[in-house]
Design a protein that fits this description.
- This protein has one domain: 2,3-Dihydroxybiphenyl 1,2-Dioxygenase, domain 1, CATH 3.10.180.
- 24% of the residues lie in helices and 39% in strands.
- The chain has 157 residues and is α+β, with helices and mostly antiparallel strands.
- A hairpin with a 2-residue loop joins β5 and β6.
- The protein has a 10-stranded mixed β-sheet.
């Protein structure tokens, strides 16, 4: 990629806020009926051979919904199976704000920057929505009170 990498450009805007829930249907109903959100996407994560949790393959899955109101996007996640960051968060903290998602062009460089600051990748895989795009959850919970999710933006050819 020819453009110069600057970490400040990578975290300019978050794309969505992830919320860990135990009952997705309940929260979708509440958010749409009480707060007027609209459901943009509702479903379950597909099976994938490249999902990793703490560096090891893990067959985790979630029910999820993307809901929006104006320019606000929320991702509601209910764990279904496997070891994963959402189940871990629910066990430790209960339901609530789990992560901020950032779409980044310099995915590898951003990961290396965060690792150089002492943060580790706790869950990762490839996108089922954007072929070849990668995603990762970074464990920033102790410092920020939430995790950071990175999603690799792919340039159109």
């Amino acid at each position: 990629m020819s453009e110069k990498f600057d970490i400040r450009d990578q975290f300019e805007h978050y794309t969505h806020v992830g919320i860990a829930v135990r009952d997705l249907d309940k929260y979708v109903k509440l958010m749409t009926e009480v707060l007027g959100y609209t459901v943009a996407n509702y479903g379950q994560t597909p099976d994938s051979p490249d999902k990793r949790y703490n560096g090891e393959y893990e067959d985790f899955a979630f029910k999820l919904a993307f809901i929006y109101r104006g320019d606000q996007m929320l991702e509601l996640l209910e764990p279904i199976r496997g070891r994963n960051v959402i189940s871990e968060y629910l066990d430790r903290c209960g339901e609530g704000l789990h992560h901020f998602n950032y779409n980044v062009h310099h995915y590898t460089e951003v990961l290396e920057h965060l690792k150089s600051k002492g943060y580790k990748i706790i869950m990762e895989g490839t996108s089922f929505r954007v072929p070849g795009a990668r995603w990762a959850y970074i464990d920033t919970m102790d410092d920020f009170g939430f995790d950071v999710e990175l999603f690799e933006l792919k340039d159109e050819e």
